[in-house]
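pinned: reference chain
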Amino acid sequence: MQSDKSKRILKKYKYIFDALEEYDRTRKLPLQRKRIDITLSIKTIDKLKQLKERTGKPISKIIEEQVQGL
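pinned: its structure tokens
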């Protein structure tokens, strides 16, 4: 039987325990990042630069957020 304190810790840091479970299963941390090369049209690059200026976020973060929403 878990105490209330340990239940609170598990609830508060659930994302960490989930990441460690993922690592045990795949040997990759879900928070790791990897550099890739992609080819984009000039129009797309310009739009991404505009979004970067408007939001203050890096282009990679903008792309990740859009892909996560799919």
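why pinned: The chain has a mean pLDDT of 89. The first helix runs from residue 4 to 12.
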